[in-house]
Amino acid sequence: MLVGFFAYANTFDAQFNxxxxxxxxxxxxxxxxxxxxxxxxxxxxxxVGNFSxxxxxxxxxxxxxxxxxxRGYHYFNLAVHLANALxxxxxxxxxxxxxxxxxxxxxxxxxxxxxxxxxxxxHPLQTQAVTYIVQRFTSLATTFYLLSLVCYIFARSxxxxxxxxxxxxxxxxxxxxxxxxxxxxxxxxxxxxxPFTIILxxxxxxxxxxxxxxxxxGAFLLTLIIVPLSIIGASGGHFMDRIAALxxxxxxxxxxxxxxxxxxxxxxxxxxxxxxxxxxxxxxxPVSHSFFEGE
Length: 295
What we know:
This protein is an all-alpha fold. The protein has helices spanning 2-8, 20-25, 28-31, 33-37, 47-64, 70-99, 103-122, 127-131, 136-158, 164-185, 194-205, 210-218, 226-234, 239-248, 255-274. The longest helix is centred in the first third of the chain and has 30 residues, at 70-99.
C-alpha cells in the first residue's frame, strides 16, 4: 500500500485530459443529483462507472464547492488501484492453496502473493489506468472482476464440506459472485471475459461431478447478456448501429487495415509488460495494409 501511494503521490493535481472532458466534465449524468440518490436511473453502458463519477462530483462539491476538483477523483482512482493490488494478493494465495498444502507451502505462497501484488501495484504499465481519470472504467471493472472471481473460489471451497452452514456460505458467495460479475460488466465491457475465466479456473483448480461443475461455473454465461443490453440502452435501441460505431473506432481507416495495424499494437503492449520503457499516452502507429507490412 505504501509503495502504491508514494508511486502516485505526485499525480493528485493532474488535470482532466482528452476523454475526461466528454465522459466527465460534459456528462450531465455526473452532475445530476438524481444519479447519486437513485443509481438505477443511470442508463446506458458503463452505468456503474458513471455512478462513481457522480458520487465523486457530489462529495467534491460538498467539501470544496467545486464538483470537478481533480484531487477527489485521483484519490478514488488510487484507492481502486490499491484495492486491486490487495485482491491480486488474495487471489494468488487462494490459488496456491488449491494447488499445494502444508505450513511451508503456506508461507511460500504468501511470499509469492506479496511479490505478485507488489509488481501489480508498482508496474509502470498501470500508470494510465490510475492517473488518467476516465480510465477508472478499466480499474473499477477490474475490482469487480477480481472480487467476483475471489467470491467464486470461496463458494467452491465451501462446497467441499457437506454441513448446512458451509452450504449456506457457498450459496451466499456464489450469488455474490454473480452480482459482482454483473457490476463488472456494467462498469466496462472488458468484463465480458469473466464467465470464461471462471469456467477455466473451475476446471483447472477444482474437482467433482462434471455436471455440477458446469452448472456452478456455466451459470455465469447468463451474465453475458448484460453487455449487449447496455449497448442497446446506450444507443436508444439501434444495436447494430452502435456495434458498427464501436468496431469502427471513429476512424475512416478500412477495417481490414485497422486489424492489420492492431497486431503491431498488441505486440507493443506485450513488450511493455516485460520492458515498460518509452510509454506514451497516444502512440502513432503507421497503417498496415497487410499482415507482414511494417514488421
